[in-house]
Amino acid sequence: MSARKKKRTGLLALLFVVISLLLVAGSTISLLNWENYLRKGLDLEGGVYVLLEAVDTGDTETDHDAIERAMTIIRQRVDELGVVEPVLQREGDRRIRIELPGIEDPAQAMAIIGRTAQLNFVYIENLPEKMNQEGEFLLSDAELLLTGANLKNAYFTRGQYNEPIVALEFDAEGRELFAQATQAHLGDIIAIFLDDELVSAPTVQNVITDGSAIITGIGSTENAHNIALMLRSGALPVELVELETRSVGPLLGENALRLAFSAGIVGLGIVMLYMMLYYRIAGLISVISLFVYLALVFLVLAAFRATLTLPGLAGLILSIGMAVDANVLIFERIKEELQLGKTSLTAVNTGFERALRAILDANITTVIGALVLFVVASGPVRGFAVVLLIGIVASVFSAIFLTRVLLRLAVRSKLIKKPAYLGYRGVS
């Protein structure tokens, strides 16, 4: 071999090593910091799971529209709660599934997201006499003066004695209605009801024309904040009943994540060890591609703002198997070409061409199954399908493009000197 050819071979070998190290280092850094850019689902983070169902009104069109509006209002309430990356999805015709990572108290969550929050200002003549034995007011004879439909804003503040109150601001129509109500009932009690529950019963001292009012007698600061939150987001257009509520403790989620990753790392380590022992340098290249593949999956999930759940981890592990399977197909085709007496470089090129169709066939059938799951299923099963789809695309890229480039570079640089380095043992 001439000095020039040796130098070229040495540069190719150095290029192969540098590229491999950069790929492994970048992928490892990305994988170790996945929690910084990828959100965790309820089963990994802990929190509250709620399943709500709308009460049947007998009007299909109204129900459909009401569910959509209810989801918008609930989403506004959840956003104001400060929940990080909540999940809010419709299931079937009248059900809403809500996942709130990081929330520990289901009762507190339900008190806000599931409450109708219908605000009514009413005049009830002889108000104390209209209370029944259960301490509830009979509103059949009440005169409705104003509703929350005319509410422009509601916010928490404090009164002159530092007591928590909720300040209300009405729109133009509400301002006119409230002025008429306070003028007609000057000196009377105007009761303020929230979901048929009396929250305040102030006596009208003067006519209010600026469209503002306050709710007093709330009790706690937290309750005042919650009432203001619900009133700002508006009243739910449909009554929702609670079908299921469960709390997932953060410790349980942490244990699930630790066990899932431990199982994944052990399984991945065994696969990588097998590939390197059986396919030698080709196996090492497949391991590098596998690292890059994993980093690609996590980065794509982060780009789509996906939520990683336990079913999603299952889909990831399954797609790892698909990625390894693609490399095995390629290497076996290369071994068949070597058996025919072809050179290593020719065997690599031909082996990739022959394996391409089998790889595409195997992955397309899996993609079809994953697409069916994504369209038909919902919730965790849909998350499984999403991760599986992303994993399949990433595995095809890493197998067909990255593995091929690295393998050709290794052959040209003479790092693969013998067919045995490609896993073929028919030639010494």
CATH superfamily of the largest domain: Multidrug efflux transporter AcrB transmembrane domain
Strand content: 15-25%
Helix/strand-derived category reads alpha+beta
Task: Tell me the name of the CATH class of the largest domain.
Answer: Mainly Alpha
The major pleated sheet works out as:
4 strands, antiparallel
Folded structure, characterized:
The chain folds into 3 domains: 3-41 and 249-422, Multidrug efflux transporter AcrB transmembrane fold, CATH 1.20.1640.10; 47-114, Alpha-Beta Plaits (2-Layer Sandwich); 117-235, 2-Layer Sandwich (Gyrase A, domain 2). The mean pLDDT is 79. The strands form 4 sheets. It has a 4-stranded antiparallel sheet with strand order 3-4-2-12. Strands 6-5-9-10 form a 4-stranded antiparallel sheet, with helices on one face. The longest helix has 54 residues, at 250-303. The protein has helices spanning 3-32, 34-37, 42-45, 60-81, 106-113, 172-184, 221-233, 250-303, 310-339, 344-376, 380-412, and strands at residues 39-40, 47-54, 87-91, 95-101, 119-123, 143-147, 151-158, 164-170, 190-194, 197-200, 212-215, 240-248, 307-308. Helix 8 packs across helix 11, helix 9 packs antiparallel against helix 10 (344-376) and helix 10 runs antiparallel to helix 11 (380-412). It is of the alpha+beta class and 428 residues long.
